[in-house]
Amino acid sequence: MAEVNKGKQHISLNICNEKIDIWVKADEEGFYRDARDLVAATYGKYAEMFRGRRSDRFVAATAMLEIAVMYQMEHANKDTDAYNGLLQRLTSDIDEALK
């Protein structure tokens, strides 16, 4: 087990009243804690919205869907193909001008 967790540290996260014990790289701990906060806030929003009308499972699924959509939108916004093409053209133009 020590070999598997080499270079990692143990953290405990409380998410939706569930204690989750995991091993993470030290430089990634902040991401996990921020993710926990995002999950808690998103879940809390839907739990309040659907209190007494929907199951915990529905609330969790809705929260996961919102987080996944946010991830997909962020991923789509990071598409760099257009920028890379422009950068290539500019580099080519600069090279030509310097000849």
Structure commentary:
- It is elongated, with a radius of gyration of 22 Å.
- By secondary structure, it is α+β, with helices and mostly antiparallel strands.
- A hairpin with a 2-residue loop joins strand 1 (8-15) and strand 2.
- The N and C termini lie far apart (60 Å).
- It has helices at residues 29-49, 56-77, 81-98; strands at residues 8-15, 18-25.
- The protein has three helices and two strands; from the N terminus they run E-E-H-H-H.
- The model has no long low-confidence stretch (mean pLDDT 87).
- Helix 1 crosses helix 2 (56-77).
- Helix content is 62%, strand content 16%.
List the helices and strands and how they pair.
Blueprint: E1 8-15, E2 18-25, H1 29-49, H2 56-77, H3 81-98
Antiparallel strand pairs: 1-2
Helix pairs in contact: 1-2
What share of the residues lie within helices?
55-70%
Compressed to H and E, one letter per element, the order equals EEHHH
Briefly note the structural class of the backbone.
alpha+beta
Our count of helices gives: 3
How many beta-strand elements? 2
Shape: elongated
Observed structural traits:
99 residues; alpha+beta; 62% helix
Provide a short characterization of the protein structure.
With 99 residues, this protein is α+β, with helices and mostly antiparallel strands. Helix content is 62%, strand content 16%.
